[in-house]
Amino acid sequence: MKLALFDCDGTLVDSAGLIHETMRRTFEKFGKLEPRFEDTKAIIGLSLDIAIARMQGRPHVEQQDIEMTAHYKSLFTVVRQDLDYREPLFPGIREMIDAISGREDLLIGAVTGKSRRGLNLVMETHGFDQHFVVARTADDCPSKPHPAMVTECCDETGMNARDAIVIGDAVYDMQMAKAAGAKAIGVAWGYASVDELIANGADAIAYHPNEILRHFS
């Protein structure tokens, strides 16, 4: 039995445009210099308050970061509606999830820096609710790369971390997997480079979602 734990943003769905526009409007509201798209992509995967602090060059969260986080959350659904943006699946993701969801030797979960509400919205939009049996979000655990998201998913499903596989596009996903004692698969279609993923502990790189299937054989 294996436990496949998928990151969401940058791994299952292409949400960078939505995240960046919401971040841009948040920084504008607080009189901050508009972030570059590259700056936003670099923090995707972190919990939101930590991400906002990092984008301003601070290692620790301060009060204004908390206020900006609250404003970002209040804007997210509005921006999503403004842009008519539904966080599309990357090509091949649906087919890959469909292929592995019926297997009796495999459980599927999500480990994400999204809020629980944001993850639920993605799951409902794409009809993945029935496939994912466990999830941990920024509302439940410390930010990646802390291993809690992985270890708590393992505990809930009765799995050992050595039988868990974390699939993600960010260096934080790779670091989290290694900290938990799990296997790490980096995906090349997301927001970090392949070299960055390998340098941060990726055991393998998938260049297309169908390449993930071989790791569950």
UniProtKB/TrEMBL annotation:
> What is the protein name stated in its UniProt record?
Phosphoglycolate phosphatase
Organism expressing this protein natively: Rhizobium lentis
Query: GO cellular component annotations, sorted alphabetically?
Result: cytosol
Q: Name one GO molecular function term.
A: phosphoglycolate phosphatase activity
Could you say which EC number(s) this protein's record lists?
3.1.3.18
One GO BP annotation of this record = DNA repair
Which Gene3D superfamilies has this protein been placed in?
A: HAD superfamily/HAD-like, Putative phosphatase, domain 2
UniProt xrefs under Pfam families:
HAD_2
